[in-house]
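Wed. Picked up where I left off yesterday with DUF1003 domain-containing protein. The coffee machine is broken again, so keeping this brief.
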Amino acid sequence: MSRGERAADILRNGMGSWTFVGIFVAFMVAWAVINSYALAADAWDPYPYILLNLFLSMLAGLQGAILLIAAKRQDAIAAAMARHDYETDVQSESEIERLTAINNEQLELLNELRSMLLRAEALAGRDDGGPGRATGAGT
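Structure written out below (tokens, as returned):
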């Protein structure tokens, strides 16, 4: 980040605060009071405050440029974050596909094991006369 971009961010954060609004309003009131009442005949900018209008116009121009610089930087940050999110999503998608394939393989193995167990139980049931029936002496 360049010095200018850093300065634009600092100024944007400063100008976009209630503190700035309060100071700005206080400055405007002070300017009007000093030039209208305190200095009255010797005012450097008597009513209708043409010098103040000039300063405000310059301030508005600078604020516009500063806000555009800061907005451009925010757009670049948002684009970088979106690119990172997309790359993360693509990686996550491939990982999910891999895990789904592994899960499907495990399900197939479990189904095979279940069928083998059922066959083994069926064979064991035929060999000893069935489950629960004792074989041997005493019957």
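Quick read: The mean pLDDT is 88.
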